[in-house]
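Hi everyone, sorry if this is the wrong subforum. Our group has a chain we'd like a structural model of before ordering constructs, and none of us has done structure prediction before. Sequence below.
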Amino acid sequence: MENKTQAPELCVVIPVYNEAEIIGQVLDIWADKLDRLGVGYQIHVYNDGSKDGTLSVIQNTAGRHPRIVVHDKPNSGHGPTILAGYRQNVGAQWIFQTDSDNEIDHTHFAELWNKRHDYDLLLGTRTNRQTRTIRQCISLVSRLVVWIFYGRGVYDVNGPFRLMRCATYKDLFFQIPDNTFAPNIILAGVAALYGWRIFETPVAFRFRQTGKVSIVGMKLLTNVVKAFKQVIAFRFQAHAPKR
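Answer:
Right subforum, don't worry. Here is the predicted structure as tokens:
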């Protein structure tokens, strides 16, 4: 039986909200992938107050894979959920974050993992994104905000396929406010600001086949404005660079 109290080399953080149709398959794929790579890992799955059968599926899947750790929490949104996951797993050497919707192929992970020793942040940059125009515009503006206030260095600033060196990032995880809507944007920006070692590689993006996007319409725009304000405000707070 895997010792779940001892931090492994790699912790995978996966936030989940209403993905009962696909999350079991996603977890099976990642556990198999990491087993084949011979990585010392744990997969930490954060059920963010799902209203469908997601929690039950996660628990059943974890029963087949001893390295999957299940966290059930009240709904707080994607950003606060992954931030909690980062903070709770800083004892590992590396944290990898990916989403639960299977939009990015797991096969790209090996390239990031094999190059990890030379970098602090390794990212999969999404290509051929078949998403709504509004989301493409949000990605563009997010990039411009980071480039203006933090500096160039990361293209897909909010990409959900990222490998982070904990020794570099652990203090920063705790400096970002708990309610931050898009902490990954800040994490990318700070890496560019301080000249941390960054690696980006294209990853194939496929449109989700199950579930629904949880934030749309005016709610989406309101949260995007909030996110941009938070990203800009954090730039002018005191946060010491770490390597």
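For your construct planning: The mean pLDDT is 90. The longest helix spans residues 217-235.
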